[in-house]
């Protein structure tokens, strides 16, 4: 089993050594801190997962040039979305997607450096360092409940975390197709199972350890081989380097031309990457109203599970309408649950109903409430 550490999002600022961390190993999953890890013997090479609240994710225009996308082109394509002192920001460029759009994670350089030093002092040998929202499936829109909030991303143009009070607004902004997988009553067990799936996707996520933050490991065993290679192949290598330099200059000229075109068009387009900032700026009264609606729906779900009337297997939101699929033992239990929804002020419409040996499955559309 792969060993990993998940830094939980803290509600209040804490010293690095006291921040809550979930540790996964062959012995299972447990809650710990860097101070406790200092006194233990850790497994070699740990996967470390950071909360998305530590970062910003930005996506720019589609790259129209030929060949590989250089770091300079990526930075220029994202220049309009980056704010603050560039020297205090640490940019980690992700691989281009199918549309060849430039995207990057933006972190506070000083804070990230302090955290890396804290890991080193605790004896943590980091194999890879990734962001939790970067571990959602890239093939479809996804909203996953983890560590007390919703991670939103996947194939969407955003990577962010929203709390329960922001879920309705986020669902309305994202549009149809985003499925919110409601967790079961045992949230601790749900988080452990979700992390097991996310850890398996870490190889495809962007590693934050790049540039100056990349671990320096000994390369002495390779010095002899490298010397022999240069000795016996000096002339071909020099020619190849000269040719590569010419090709790189030509590619750079193409990059500059394509970036200029993309920058001129970017002024007329709105970026969904700013959704996180807009959600944080939502008016207080609107947020409270949405929070009350979300809380009532969550209470309804919890009551149904507690009384064992039914199980909500899926839930989807689109333009003021909730689409739910419910499974129960009998139609009598489903009727009772439907009556509760109506009592709370929801208008209930039965879309389909099926019965089998295992029970009944009914799809509802709910509005109002």
Automatic annotation (TrEMBL):
This is Protein XcpY. Pfam families: GspL_C, T2SSL. It is a single-pass membrane protein. It is found in: Cell inner membrane. Belongs to the GSP L family. The lineage of its organism: Bacteria, Pseudomonadati, Pseudomonadota, Gammaproteobacteria, Pseudomonadales. InterPro entries: GspL_cyto_dom (IPR024230), GspL_pp_dom (IPR025691), T2SS_protein-GspL (IPR007812). One of its GO terms (biological process) is protein secretion by the type II secretion system. Residues 217-366 form the GspL periplasmic domain. The gene is xcpY. Coiled coil: none annotated. Keywords: Cell inner membrane, Cell membrane, Membrane, Protein transport, Transmembrane, Transmembrane helix, Transport. GO terms for cellular component: Gram-negative-bacterium-type cell wall; plasma membrane; type II protein secretion system complex.
